[in-house]
Amino acid sequence: MMGNNLEFTNPGFLWLLLVIPILAAWYFFTIKKDGATLKMASTKGFVKQDIFARLKPLLYLLRLLAVALLIIALARPRNVEVSQRTKTTRGIDIVMAIDVSASMLAKDLKPNRLEALKTVAIKFVNKRPNDRIGIVVYAGESYTQTPITSDKSIVVNTINKIKWGQIEDGTAIGMGLGSAVNRLKDSKAKSKVIILLTDGVNNSGFVDPKTATELAKGLNIKVYTIGLGTNGTALFPVAKDLNGKLIFRNAPVEIDEKLLQYIATETDGKYFRATDNKKLESIYNEINKLEKTEIEEFKYYNYQERYRALVFLAAFLVMVEMLLRFTVYRSFI
Fold first, then answer.
1. Domain contains 215
2. 37-87: pLDDT as tens digits
3. For residue 311, how many other CB atoms are within 10 A of its CB?
4. Handedness of CA 230, 234, 239, 240 (dihedral sign)
5. CATH classification of the domain holding 169
6. Which is it for the CA torsion 159, 160, 161, 162, positive or negative?
7. What is the C-alpha separation between 280 and 273, in angstroms, rounded?
């Protein structure tokens, strides 16, 4: 009758249930006083006590049950059915600008920087179901791999297919940022974000990173920058052998952190340094928390009152008790 989604409108009345065991104890401790007593030398001449007389305490039990039901009814039990609907009120357009230069094959992250980034980036995309996301890749030049879209399967598929060697090598941070800004310039979203990742120093391209930063700032685009690479040295690809296999050697890790900090500061973003796989994942998790999509939730409640049945049941028990008291038990009272 009650159901699993039961609640009480006036739960304070339930404290009155503590009176029930007190009343029960009072009755059974004073039961001998209920009626006259007669002392006799022997009862052998009397028939065995009638079973109805022995069940007389059940009358009081019925009364206590009725009182308990009325107390529960006063607390107003009811079943609640909740249905809800959500509506995105503030979507975010995000462009991920990913460095795909040869240095992204360095092995200070496992199995290498690029593969580590792809794993984390896919997790990030899957955590943004209400946002549109686009992908820009850059090295010595840049291009849009996927325009801004709400289809996460396309974005994930694009990230999975990113690999080194598709475009001219180098690190054109200005061009990568400029392409990302170009993707967002016509966006109607209330919040526009670029996540710019690089593992090196701007050394190519014809767009000055500071110029691209000013463009982002003018369009109210927030830029989160990530410097990828351990502190010290790392195994970098330096050449290929006769079989075309990459040769790796230790070399110093160089990241233009001042430039990345400048870009982030000027656009009200934040700069991060990822020195290992765990740190890279924590950075994307932090960005995910910083950029929250506003969602409006509507809940609809359907109430089914349950106290009426308890009142009727209590009334029925009282009627049964009174009926028994003035019929079957009349001679025993």
1. yes
2. 555 555 554 444 556 556 667 777 888 888 888 888 888 888 888 777 766
3. 15
4. negative
5. 3.40.50.410
6. positive
7. 8
